[in-house]
Amino acid sequence: MQIYDFKVLLEPDEIGGYVAVCPALQGCYSQGDTVAEAMTNIKEAIELCLEDLRERGDAIPDPSGVLVGSVVVTAE
Fold first, then answer.
1. Is-above-0.90 flag for pTM?
2. CA–CA separation, 61 vs 76, rounded Å?
3. What is the H or E stretch that residue 56 is in?
4. Which pLDDT tens digit goes with each residue over 21-69?
5. CATH architecture of the domain formed by 9-65
6. CA-CA distance, 16 to 30, in Å (whole number)?
């Protein structure tokens, strides 16, 4: 069994809760009312995306290609 470490981005949703996106898997996103719920839901979405890739015979993208950084800027 292969273990993957997919990066996930979380953003507050305009109508409440959080949106979670997995950049390594195109179209893989979910949401939840809390950060914990969004994380649980995106994990399930990732598992479903991987299952779909396997069923189609497609390669699973290398999650190490997604880098997370931070940029600090000042604005007036």
1. no
2. 40
3. helix 35-56
4. 999 999 999 999 999 999 999 999 999 999 999 999 999 999 998 988 9
5. 2-Layer Sandwich (3.30)
6. 13
- Tokens 């890739």 locate to 53
Please, are residues 29 and 49 in contact by the beta-carbon 8 Å criterion?
A: no
Distance of CA 17 to the CA centre of its chain: 16
CA end-to-end distance (rounded Å), the chain: 51
Written as six digits, the tokens of 19 are 């949106």
Beta bridge partners of 19: 11, 31
For residue 1, what pLDDT band results from cuts at 50, 70 and 90? confident
- Per domain, the residue ranges of the chain are 9-65
Tokens 């959080």, located at residue:
18
